[in-house]
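Chain A, query sequence.
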Amino acid sequence: MTDNVIKKDLTRRNLLRVAGLAGLGAVAVPLLDACSSKGAVGGSGATEQTPAKTLNFLCWEGYTDKSFADGFTAKYGTKIKSTFIGSNDELVAQLTSGAGNFDLISPSVDTTKSLIEAKLVRPLDMSQVPNWSNSYSIFQNNDSVKSGTDVYGVPMSWGFVPVIVNLDAIPNPANSWSILWDKQYKGKISVWDDITSIYNTALLLGYKNVYSLTDTQLEAVKVKMLEQKPLLTKYWATAGELTNLFANRETIVGNSFGGTTLPDLRTQGFNVKEFIPQEGATAWVDFWMVPVKSTNQYTAQLWMDYIQQPKIQAQINKVTGYAPTVQAAADLVSEAVVGQYSLNDPASFDRLLFWEQVPNRQKYLDLLNQVKAA
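Chain A, predicted structure.
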């Protein structure tokens, strides 16, 4: 049974306020010998053979949905309590403030390395997560959840940041990010109020080092974004807001972060599609990690193993709209989902630039705020 303690609006990937992550290394986290071990267990009466009575989650909404989480409770007798976040900075703030004792967190891939470096999370005993081998290799081998030979994270869901377009309004959309600068669509373009708007603009300008732009490159991005601003309907913040903008015909083209926007609009009868422009696109993946203060690592790893089953990944997709991290789940989701994420063609993932830690993140955020305020 799930107990959803806190619910927030599904801002989901609103990372604008994540300015402090680069400074996480300065956070002092006392590491007791008993807590630094990969095999640390205990809490709520748990042992290595007995699952904990309760697991406390700090995660994105939908990640502990009853449709698949109840199966875990039925199998292990563990009650799930969830605190939902709207951004990675909320997750970091919760961890560093001591506001709650959490057993599992679900940070995005551009945040995981900072958490490892700040010693806010602990390495996993991967022998207790055998279903991890089901994951796409690109997630198993991701350096953002590794330190040396230690693994700190197991993937939950992933997606990319594509162009989304109403084909009835634009039958033959340009296969380029430049469509979001096309003056003939003035007043009908909406883009994500997020740091990814800088990434997308950089890709349009031909920059591939989107996570390490130089000052000169950032200035060129700023000029290009200022050129775009008069054409916009608005900067959207949530998936629901983007869906409504299309549904109300206030927007005919923009970008999304995948998820439920596309299927929701199609259910409403809209002829829409998402595509990766010729310049490429960025992508995100969320990982489950165990905070260093958790005393329920054994049970947390049972959860990690549970959600890596193909049938559970298919259920997660049905709830969230995000892509499965397990290739075998491609046989259990709709053909539309398989096509949307190219699930049977892992080689195609190479065209995506998965999010990374941005060393000069504050400069990026300052630039975005300057453009919005102009």
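The longest helix spans residues 215-228. The CA atoms of residues 3 and 98 lie 21 Å apart.
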